[in-house]
Amino acid sequence: MSGLNRKSEGDNIKVRVRDAYKRDAGRCRIRIDPDVIKELNLKT
């Protein structure tokens, strides 16, 4: 996961994703890899 930076501040977790699909740029779309969802304990 070279494109993922994680930072915790209190109860908040900020995630910065550097690698994105070029076709999605400027379209307000976010695609999250299943491995990232699992690592961050996100609910789908």
Provide an overview of this structure:
It is a single chain. With 44 residues, the protein is of the alpha+beta class. It has one domain. It is built from one helix and two strands; from the N terminus they run E-E-H. It has one helix at residues 34-39, and strands at residues 4-9, 12-17. A two-stranded antiparallel sheet has the order 1-2. Strand 1 (4-9) and strand 2 form a beta hairpin. The protein is globular. It starts with a strand and ends in a 5-residue tail after the last helix. InterPro entries: Asp_de-COase-like_dom_sf.
Strand content: 25-35%
Number of domains: 1
Structural class: alpha+beta
Please report the number of helical segments: 1
Overall mean pLDDT:
70
First and last CA, distance: 20 Å
Spans of 5+ residues with little confidence (pLDDT < 50)? none
Biggest sheet features: 2 strands, antiparallel
- Large-scale geometry: globular
What is the N-to-C order of secondary-structure elements (H for helix, E for strand)?
EEH
The total beta strand count reads 2
Strand order of the largest sheet: 1-2
Q: Approximately how much helix is present in the residues? A: 10-25%
Radius of gyration: 11 Å
